[in-house]
Design a protein that fits this description.
Elements lengths: L16 H4 L3 E6 L9 H8 L2 H4 L2 E6 L18 E6 H9 L4 E8 L4 E5 L17 E3 L1 H4 L2 H9 L6 E3 L5 H5 L4 E5 L3 H9 L4 E4 L9 E7 H6 L1 H20 L3 H10 L5 H14 L7 H4 L6 H13 L25 H9 L2
Parallel strand pairs: 1-2, 1-3, 6-7, 6-8
Antiparallel strand pairs: 3-10, 4-10, 5-8, 5-9
Helix pairs in contact: 2-10, 2-11, 10-15
Amino acid sequence: MRAPLKLVPLALLSLAALGAAAQEKIVFATNWKAQAAHGGFYQALADGTYRKYGLEVEIRQGGPQVNNRPLLPAGKIDFLMTGNLLHSFDNVKNGVPVVTVASMFQKDPQALFAHPNQGYRKFSDLKGAPTAFIAKDAQFSWWAWLKADYGFNDKQLKPYNYNLGPFLADKKSIQQGYAVEEPISIEKQGGFKPLVFLLADHGYSTYSTTIEARLDTVQKKPELVKKFVEASILGWVNYLYGDRKAADALIKRDNPEMTDELIAKSIQLMKDLGIVDSGDAATLGVGAMKPQRVKDFHDKMVKAGLYKPGEVDLSKVAVYDFVNKGVGVELKKKLTAAK
């Protein structure tokens, strides 16, 4: 069994060392190709926020042929952006020595999409859809929650292969997708705005776009974790509400598939849906996490049959010392007031 985490009190850490210390090199890996949903990290790199915090950061993007997850416990990277708390629960269940230190998204962007004017007026109506295009990994994660809490059933299932064609051709069908991306593609290819049902607005209470660190980093280098988390938080505030041109240029450099139009529309969806700074983040700052919410999501996943009671020690899922400090709240006020 792991020993309980023992952290140096952050109040005792010297912030005066931020500018004086030599730049500390770290590698931060994401779970997919560069996009607006990674924008805050690129912003902190582009506008010098990481450097102001004494960090020389390399962002290493993921992708369909790239799995960065094993690199964190192996010591090949220093921090990892991952999807949601299911990954964190799995880490604890399997004894992987990593822990979540922040959550950049208060809402998971996972959503279900439907054609308009097909009788899907509210979320519970979707369980009556004759066809649901759902990817295999989702069928063994949040689909189980939909069955347990809303009465969806496996007879609806057809495989989703990240091709919009089948959904566009079947007006009665529903489809999974990322709420800050797929609506843009559906409108472009199908010529209509889809109905967007964000799972987070209907009880799927996981945190998302979390930052994970190794346990030994948290225990031995808490100041490093603090600096990376706080700089990333400021990056997200500046990206959403400040001048993001330099960050967008880095995103397009790493992922040439991105365009200014796609990025702008994705950012607007993040704002409209409250993905980043809604809920607790409005007062506690971007990145906010609370143990009560982690437990709430865990209990729902136990009910859905994804975990057994007691299988995941929730005290080992996340460390809350690096968030909930209100970092970036005043900066957002200044940036929004200036517009």
